[in-house]
Known about the structure:
The structure holds 2 protein chains of 2 kinds. In chain A, strand 1 and strand 2 form a beta hairpin. The radius of gyration of chain A is 19 Å and the shape is globular. Chain A contains 11 helices and 2 strands, in the order ααααββααααααα. Chain A has a domain at 25-226. In chain A, helix 2 (35-53) crosses helix 9 and helix 10 runs antiparallel to helix 11. By secondary structure, chain A is mostly helical. By secondary structure, chain B is an alpha/beta fold. Chain B has 2 domains: 1-79 and 155-236, Rossmann fold; 83-153, Orthogonal Bundle (Helicase, Ruva Protein, domain 3), CATH 1.10.8. Chain B is built from 10 helices and 10 strands. In chain B, a hairpin with a 2-residue loop joins strand 1 (4-13) and strand 2. In chain B, helix 3 (95-102) packs parallel to helix 6. In chain B, 46% of the residues are buried. The chains are: A mainly alpha, B alpha/beta. Chain A binds chain B through residues 167, 170-171, 173-174, 177-178, 180-189, 290, 293, 296, and chain B through 47, 50-52, 71-73, 76-77, 81-82, 84, 86, 88-93, 97, 100-102, 104-105, 135, 149, 153. Bound molecules: adenosine-5'-triphosphate (ATP) and magnesium ion.
Amino acid sequence: MAVAINGLSLGAIYALIALGYTMVYGIAKMLNFAHGDVIMVGAYIIYTMCMFTWNIGSMPIWLSSLISFVVAMAVCTCLGIVIEKVAYKPLRGASPLAALITAIGVSYLLQGIAQLIWGADQRTISILDRLGTVNLGSYVIKWSAIITVVVGAIIMVCLVMFIKKTRTGRAMLAVSEDKGAAQMMGVNVNAIVSITFAIGSGLATFASMFYLPITSVSPTLGAMPGIKAFAAAVIGGIGSIPGAMLGGVLLGVVEVVCNSISAVASYTTAIEFALLIIILLVRPIGLLGKKRRIKV
Amino acid sequence: MALLEVKDLQVFYGVIQALKGISFEVSQGEIVTLIGANGAGKTTTMQTVIGLIQPKAGSIIYNEKDITKMPSHKIVASGISQVPEGRRIFQELSVYDNLMLGAYLQKDQKKIKDDIENVFDQFPILGERRTQIAGTLSGGEQQMLAMSRALMAHPTLLMMDEPSMGLSPLLVSQVFDIIKDMNSKGITILLVEQNAEKALKIADRAYVLETGAITASGTGAELASSPEIRKAYLGG
Ligand SMILES: Nc1ncnc2c1ncn2[C@@H]1O[C@H](COP(=O)(O)OP(=O)(O)OP(=O)(O)O)[C@@H](O)[C@H]1O
Ligand SMILES: [Mg+2]
């Protein structure tokens, strides 16, 4: 039971990050390898804001934490938009390799800046884990894990509704399928790409918040969840939104289950990536990936 | 003053020059057709007018405004729509979503609803398949959808790139009837067609495009009776 909740909770975190990779890939056709570092920036902002606001006498901790989170979300959303405008937009139409290398560059840049501002040492902060645990029958479960699963699920449902039912969501799907045809409908592709980066970075801030109870804050915080979530997006089929969710949850559950079995615990990461390779060998487009028709 | 006035338009793909300085115009209410062999530059012309391709030189004046450097979404907002070559409907989206995307820049929700109902009245098959993924429609149905989608934007000028491509003779006739009908309702039409015979028949005026340059122009009837045109495009 605890393993299941923890697995789902880690899975929800991976899924939230994977959504960022997959949406940006679907719409801008590029792999944004700096995405993991946005989570790191989010974590630092939450950390710094909490350190600051918790000392403001009369404010309850939940409120100051919430404010910290909202500020982090605003910063990360802007960061996502700025990264796209400054680093990626000039390269649209250039070779995918150029964009990929730029993304890796941005990733190191963000890590470097974080190290300059906050230093290299690891810090810990407890926000969601202050809520403690709950006993369900004979199981002890962390509230933070339950909140992650529930809020993660709500966010994903909202995202799917947004994309399916709104004018902007429809435009995102249109751009993802055929950018030129979308432009002929009057869709402003630059605006849609910006919105996509904003949403991806906003989701990443949730991941930051949910990831804090199980990690310490350091400039490389984003690297591991970033690469795992990228693997999750590929497992699910890069470009596919349900795929990112499925891949994220699958990988999270596998990771927690492997970690709970002492005989295989030290091979967990290897097992996860073996899973990635096996799935890609059997189904190169990922579990829910779509075969794109060849355009004439 | 013409509705659309293209002057000395030059377009390059890398070092290859696809349009070598073409000029033509389309007046309000006309059907103008552009005929030419494969690779002549017909699609390039339309894509450039709607802002998907940036010309190297020349100008595009629409409604007395210079739209040469305007981004495509502003061009569409000013009243130009396109039925693109190969239809390019959104295969993974439903029929309904395709129509909604056609109305992307329309503001009046009630009017959008009415427009969609009108489409379903005109093409009941699209109504039956409103929730179906558009990629599963037949070629003819996809063409009806592509035309309806373009009409959702209430264009002043509609550019159609080979709308009869790949359709059975019966459907080709239907497509041409629809074009005439749209024109009689006041939509100005720029038409590119493989089927030069039929295109010249419904066109008020026509231009012949050969490897990036306009080599002849006149009324539809004039071109249809010219021996050279008959030989090159009408099979003798
Ligand atoms: N994306 C592109 N990159 C390079 N060259 C291109 C591109 N698109 C078109 N061309 C070239 O530009 C020229 C004009 O092409 P265009 O598609 O405009 O012709 P067309 O008249 O529409 O032909 P068709 O009747 O086959 O549709 C052709 O020589 C074509 O090979
Ligand atoms: Mg063409």
